[in-house]
Amino acid sequence: MLRKFRIYIPFCLIISLILSCSKDDGPNEPDTLTTDAIVDEALAITNYSTSCSGCHGQSLETFVERQWAYGDTYNDIFSIIQSGTNNGMPAYDDAFSPQEVSDLANFILREIDGRTLEDIRNERPGLSGIFNSDDLDFQTEVIATDIGDGQPFGLTQLPDGDFVVSERASRGLYRITPSGTVTQITGLPNVVFNEYSQEGMLDVVIDPDFANTNRIYFSYASPDPSDMYQKSTAVARAVLTGNTLSQVQEIFIAHPYSASAGHYGSRLQFDRDGYLYITVGDRNNRDEFPQELDNSHGKIHRIMADGQIPADNPFYNQGGVSQSIFSIGIRNPQGLTIHPTTGEIWHGEHGPQGGDEINIVGSGRNYGWPVITYGEEYGGGQIGVGTSQEGMEQPVVYWTPSIAPSGMNFLTSEFYGAWQNDLFIGTLSGNHLRRLVMNGNAVESQEVLLEGVGRIRDVHQGSDGYMYILMDDPGRLIRILPVQ
After folding, report:
1. How confident is the model at residue 17 (pLDDT cuts 50, 70, 90)?
2. Which end of the chain is more exposed for a tag (fewer CB within 10 A), N or C?
3. Distance CA 378, CA 352 (A)
4. Residues sharing a CB contact under 8 Å with residue 38, sequence separation 6 or more, in sequence order
5. Model's pTM, two decimal places?
6. Is 56 a catalytic residue?
7. Domains (range + CATH), the chain
8. Catalytic: which of 56, 263, 301, 432?
9. Strands 276-280 and 299-303
10. Buried b (16+ CB within 10 A) or exposed e, 250-271
């Protein structure tokens, strides 16, 4: 049966095929086009899996129980696949023949007919029982569920053992006790969210000196004060007292503001010296932003805890430059962590169609996007000059096809035996927990864990030594327990 091949995939840069479609009278059809049936079933499945599922999911969940802003007919779907939009959805008229586009439209309509999100959830593998890996048997324990509106993004832990989780759709932060009590935190600034976007509340971390400052830091989509349709990635810090924020202070805003609804980033990570690293995506403007220094987008930034610029930043005191920039040439970075031995910052980013990467962040380094990439245009076709160029970094590891790496963490706990010091990455289109078996900075092998369970947004080692993962839909905090 077709549905056995479905995998749960994240809400991603390409906005739903339907959400921005044109309202013309119908597709540009040749006389021989068959519109009322799928002519080539196998090719339709392949084309959807290759070109669409990375953003819309092989279970087509972004089309289910959603308001279709620009129509849900065959003609609407055909037109948007063929022509694309101006907010991230590419045109496939050169990649697919009209008949292939027609088959895709009919495939989407057939597969979502009568289905609910609950149906999709029920098709996923469960989280009960014992899971086996190459080096360890483990089980899961659900700490909390139904966090916010079901789209958690970031996870951090307070000294008292409580967790703080950011949730994108409700534009909120939530305090969660180890026993699973969920309480919404109040006092947040204005956060932009649209369900057809990557906006909302993004990452959250605590101040390294939280015991003395009680401060937390969070990133979010912030509106331009003079134009509500223009938004950008912002970072604020605030004092957390109980479940209330005070002294909220915006310490970073990525310029310029943009009307794009995608590629905000954003992850936060403090290094050992107390500097804060911030990832910012290219805002769907790869041709202008990532390689230029006069803007904040497609970059990794480094600032002090109060928002000031470190004097040893690579572009400090250069005119016409965003001086918080630390590294350039980034597409859509949704993972950030610190290496437990070297103290170096590692980041993960989404490629286009393939070309997801893990990189070691370095001062002034250029990670190549969009000049070099291991990915390709949606629907096929080379981007840039290829996969290498002098002066541009090669990734530690890359994936083609994409797995959409999200939050990640090096596991240092002794509880997990051979897993110790390996890198664990949540995946969105991959719908699994990815283990990278490390030897220093080299990846010796990889292992897929919890395959098919859903989007894993973040990975965190708790103060109790256990690994925690944060999952989308319906928004769950889960502990990974080794079987002793």
Report:
1. very low
2. N
3. 7
4. 44, 103, 106, 107, 110
5. 0.87
6. no
7. 2-27+35-120 (1.10.760), 128-163+264-482 (2.120.10.30)
8. 263
9. antiparallel
10. ebbbbebbbebbbbbbbbbbbe
